[in-house]
Amino acid sequence: MTLSFRLAGRSGSLSQPDGGERRWAAALVYGLLVPASLLAVAASGWYVTTGETPLDLLAEVTFAARIDEPMPPRPGPEKPAASLIQPPAQPPATAPAAAPQAAPQAAPTAAEAPKPAALPQAPAAEAHLPAAPHEQTPQAPADIHLPTAPQAAGEPAHTGEAAHSGEAAKTVSPAPAPAATTAAAAPPPPPPPGSDPIMPAAGDPLPQPSFAQLPAHESGPPLTPGPLPDLLRNSGYGALPIVAGGTEPRTAYARPFAADGKAGKVAIVVTGLGLSKDATAAAIAKLPPEICLSFSPYAGNLDALIKKARAGGHEVLLDLPLEPANFPLRDAGPLAILARHAASEAVDHLEAVLGKGNSYVGVAAFLHSPVTASENWQPTLQALKNRGLLFLGDGLVGVPDNFVPAAASVTLVADEVPFRTAIDSRLSRLTMAAERDGSALAYISAKPVSFERVLAWIATLGQHNLVLAPASAVVKSGV
Predict the structure, then answer these.
(1) Distance CA 479, CA 472 (A)
(2) SS3 helix, strand, coil % of the chain, rounded to 5?
(3) pTM above 0.85, yes or no
(4) Is pLDDT of 85 > 70?
């Protein structure tokens, strides 16, 4: 009897797991399977709600520089660079329709007809947009690197060349002579509006420069050392700028500029400085002193950097972080003014930014922010005005004049598409805007390729009767 009981107890103990096995099973279920299931459900819910995968979310919250278009490895010199930019779309029936009409009239000169396989010429280093073939643009403007309007259907081919080439004139019958004379006398059609070229499939054909490769620029005379004690008042956020005795910080710390009424003014502002040591040093030492430098409020040792920039002759601003358009996927930091802030809270954030440095003329605000359409925007602008600071950015349309400080709207961001041809295209548009309006202003970021293209563009300003000016020279004073 005792033996059978022991055997039954031993067999029962073999059929049930011991305590260690139960703990391992619970750890596997609750430590791995349950969290994995919850993570999968959360990711699925996020994808159904926003359409974004976790990898997309990770890419959005990082601050690394990104290029939307693919950039394969740089090709070798043996590959042609003829198709760096896609030519503008033209009506498919325009050129073929004109060729048959000119053939019966100029049969001996059939070799001069447009070749269907011809490709646009490779753009030169300073070109902004591809030029059309020579046969279709005999009188393209030399100063504007934009394609001319397509030839109208039914117009005889090579009428411009027939008017300017004696050999071509001999081969054309007397019938179309009046049309050729009219075409030669009429001014060339206006170019279409500029557009940004797309990123080349093979990437930038030239190697990317470095800050060390940029030539050093002779610094201008140092600006007046700051800060001025009379223009500061202590607060909970540090010493803040004020207006004292009719003197405003935007004029006291401005770079002197002798205005020429006959020349247009164009200003360049480098934003985001102070976060990279090499970029900040290159902006101070290798850019002309007329270019304004705007420092991030998150930069360390900001007062020393501002003093160094002013010693090099540069006018200084502070970046004003505003809520990005894709917030909260992208955040502008704890000092940013958000659209949901009350007016008093927005002004508090503004004063926290202004307390990070001194001796600046104003702020360079982030662009395309929903804050400019919120109720706290006008009080924010009025706070800048009351402190005698200038404002650069957007969101000024529709704001009453009594709220607007001395301000200038940003015409464009020159290196929003960060490759040479796109930067050159935008700088060309900046030139045309300054010629049209008398002044223009652009942001650029602290990249070697941006500095390289801006330095090359500055050398061409004299051809357009334009001068490089500090930001304080292009703003318009409020009421």
Answers:
(1) 17
(2) 40, 10, 50
(3) no
(4) no
At 285-340, the pLDDT tens digits run 999 999 999 999 999 999 999 999 999 999 999 999 999 999 998 899 999 999 99
C-beta separation of 368 from 394 below 8 A: yes
DSSP 219-276: --PPPPPS--GGGEEEETTEEEE--BTTB-HHHHTSPP----TTSEEEEEEEEEETS-
Cα 181 to Cα 113, 161, 313, 348: the distances in Å are: 20, 11, 56, 69
51-64 per-position pLDDT tens digit:
667 666 665 655 44
What tokens appear for 261 in the block? Answer: 């009424």
Burial 128-145 (b: 16+ CB within 10 A, else e): bbbbbeebbbbebeeebb
Task: Tell me how far apart the alpha carbons of residues 441 and 431 are, in angstroms, rounded to a whole number.
Answer: 10
Domains of the chain, by residue range, sit at 231-255+271-473
Name the CATH code of domain 231-255+271-473 (choices 3.30.70.580, 3.30.300.30, 3.20.20.370, 1.10.630.10): 3.20.20.370
Amino acid making up residue 1: M
Residue 73 buriedness (CB in 10 A; 0-12 / 13-18 / 19+)? exposed
Model confidence pLDDT, tens digit, residues 121-147: 444 434 343 333 333 433 443 444 433
411 phi/psi in degrees, rounded to 5 = -70, -45
Q: What is the pLDDT confidence band of residue 32, given thresholds at 50, 70 and 90?
A: confident
Residue identified by tokens 């760096």 is 84
**Going by C-beta distance under 8 Å and a sequence separation of 6 or more, which residues neighbour residue 253?**
223, 224, 226, 310, 315, 316, 359, 360, 361
Burial grade of 104 (CB within 10 A; 0-12, 13-18, 19 or more): exposed
Q: Please return the burial class of 384, using the count of CB atoms within 10 Å of its CB with bins 0-12, 13-18 and 19+.
A: buried
Tokens of 304: 């020393």
d(CA 285, CA 214): 10
The per-residue pLDDT for range 392-427, each reduced to its tens digit, is: 999 999 999 999 999 999 999 999 998 899 999 999
DSSP string across 22-81: HHHHHHHIIIIIHHHHHHHHHHHHHHHHHS--HHHHHHHH--S---SS--PPPPPTTS--
d(C-alpha 440, C-alpha 299), whole Å: 28
CB of 424 within 8 A of CB of 412? no
